Amino acid sequence: MKLTRKILRKMILEEQTKLQEYGGSNPNSPVDRAMGLYFDVKMMEQVGAILDSLFHNAMDAAKEDGMEPEEAYNAVTDGIRKLVEDEIEDTMRY
Question: Is the pLDDT of residue 23 over 70?
Answer without folding.
Answer: no
